[in-house]
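Progress note, project year one: complex with magnesium ion.
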Amino acid sequence: MPSRDEILEALERVIDPELRKSIVELGMVRSIDVAEDGATAITVSLTTAGCPIRNHFSTAVAREASTVEGVTSVEVTFDVLSDTEKAKLQQSLGRGSLPEGALARVANVLCIGSGKGGVGKSTLTANLAAALTADGKRVGILDADVWGYSIPRMFGLGSEKPPVSPERKILPHEAHGVKVMSIGFFVKEDAAVVWRGPMLHKALTQFLEDVEWGELDYLLVDLPPGTGDVSMTLAQLLPQAKFLIVTTPQPTAQRVARRAAEMAGKVDLEVAGIIENMAGFTTPSGERYAIFGEGGGQELADELDVPLLGKVPLTMPLREQADAGTPLVFTDPDDPAAQATRQAARGIVALTPIELPVLQAPEPPAAPAPKGLSLPMAG
Ligand SMILES: Nc1ncnc2c1ncn2[C@@H]1O[C@H](COP(=O)(O)OP(=O)(O)O)[C@@H](O)[C@H]1O
Ligand SMILES: [Mg+2]
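Model obtained:
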């Protein structure tokens, strides 16, 4: 009976025409099963289900495996690499422009976006972070809303510059157990920030490269509204990120949110789910008013075929706590808005199982010499 290793050796001759490496080296050989009579079943993992070079692999794998003595027949099947495997592959290929190791110890990156401002994206980001933290997860927030940063205020943080480690890495501030990094720590309050193009790209890259996040289960990225430069830049830098879309229930908001989904599709980010915010208001006497209409979140979720992770109602305490500097989920987990947010957080956990091997990634390499550039700050 031929051994698994012999077959694996033969499969080293099967080269991925795009990546120009052997499928063995790329870790794409998922399984090899050899029966007593030499009938061999091989599963190959592809990067996408509709991989156009599937036939090439099918033929080449069957051909090479058949050269091994004792193999009587070959059956080739395919599956798809998981997101973490894809991210690992991408990293090993040096794709994306982040240096290897920059986010190696961050298991999941979730970008929270919306078509427009004022839908409660930052409020939800802060409270989702709180809910995940309360659930024992290690969480960081990157406030990438370079024009309307509000995360520091929601965590009671001022505009103090974050400390720098002896290795010259920027250390995020920590509040209520959540690591927080914001452009707001680097600009004077109320200073008009007009970053665009390369400058913006540089600042964001630096946030991802030079911030020492440590080990995180979740890095939540609060995107600016819209589908502009920042989202594009981040998508380029974070090919493994998933996208959460926040919308209000009314049809117009949903149309705008759809544009965010289209953008995510264009840059190949997977939309993980929808959260509907401002989903009605219930008076103390129990009457419910659908102030912003009904059903927009579900409709968008159906249309994109992704889960609706939560419907967060309007409540006064949600706004008050955001202004007071402690997310509501920490101070009053039973408030209806807090409950809905906690439920959404559980949905996120269910969508993003934490695979231990990722957390065991090697320590990042020693910090490179400072590049002589500090964050571009206004004064
Ligand atoms: N469910 C809600 N109930 C009450 N107020 C809310 C709710 N969601 C958001 N807000 C308030 O609405 C305003 C806009 O929210 P914010 O999170 O800053 O939106 P975005 O980040 O999308 O611009 C804030 O004052 C916030 O406190
Ligand atoms: Mg915001």
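The chain has a mean pLDDT of 84.
The chain is about 35% helix and 20% strand.
No further modelling is planned for this target in the current period.
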